[in-house]
Amino acid sequence: MVAVGGDGTVNAVVNGLVDQTGSGLSSLGCLFTGRGCDGVRNFGLPRNFQEACRRLVEGQDVTVDLGLVHSGRGGERYFVGSAGAGFDAAVAQKAQVGKIGGIFSYLPALATTLFTYRNQRMTVEADGKRLFDGPAAAVVVANGPYYGGGMKIAPGAELADGWLDLIVLGDLGALEIIWWTPSVYRGKHLANPKVTAARGRTVSIEAQTPLPVHVDGEVPGETPVRISVRPAALRLRI
Question: Is 232 helix (H, G, I), strand (E, B) or coil?
Fold first, then answer.
């Protein structure tokens, strides 16, 4: 099977392809034509369309992990790249309506959300241990390093290591987000003392009031959520 489209399209195909036990039914190939195309970066695929088609024929299958989000209001949904709650999900909602791609879609949405979003108290647990409890802008749970149209949000994340990388963006104000956003594209934001990084196989996120949750850039639900990793759940043609 081949998915043609953006990260959201690939997410929809993955959710139709993988059964409830986390076993891939067949191999998945991807031709990215959408806005963000973080899958190109996370999967190491060529941007050239003809070269990408050649990979579908001549490439090899590898097994990769999937994340599984369980939301009380959004049900269960798999993700390939990342899931998140809070500010980034609010930005993702706005970026979905844009007509242009990548950073040119994400940055305008970021700008319009900056001065209207209010940080909420969030409680985050990883593998049953409390990692964070306090005001936070967003929590990102990453299977791959890239999201948001090229932001290297989780520099150490790998698609097939059996772990989820957890990034908590603490009580960052609008001006701090503006100042630190360029560093995220280089994966240098972990130097910010208000950013917490960890790894786990299960993650739970609760908020003072329900917050939007994104799954590979789509926004199907809200907090509270429980997120787990499904190791080697998908065969991917790369």
Answer: strand
The secondary structure of residue 24, as a DSSP letter, is: B
pLDDT number for residue 133: 97
Tokens of 130: 């409390």
Interhelix angle 103-114/174-185, nearest 10 degrees: 160
The DSSP letter of residue 118 is -
**Beta-carbon contacts of residue 62 (< 8 Å; ≥ 6 apart):** 160, 235, 236, 238
For the segment 181-206, what is each residue's pLDDT rounded down to a tens digit? 899 999 999 999 999 999 999 999 99
Length, in residues, of the chain:
238
The alpha helices in the chain, defined as continuous H runs, are: 7-17, 38-43, 49-58, 87-95, 103-114, 174-185
Amino acid at 208: Q
Q: pTM for the full model? A: 0.90
Residue that the structure tokens 């088609």 belong to: 53
In 6-145 the beta strands, taken as DSSP E runs, fall at 27-32, 61-71, 75-79, 82-86, 120-126, 129-136, 138-142
Q: Of 237, 159, 216, which is closest to residue 9 (Cα–Cα)?
A: 216
Nearest 5 degrees, angle CA 163-CA 168-CA 111?
Answer: 120
β-strands 212-215, 225-237 pairing? unpaired
Dist. CA 81–CA 217, nearest whole Å: 9
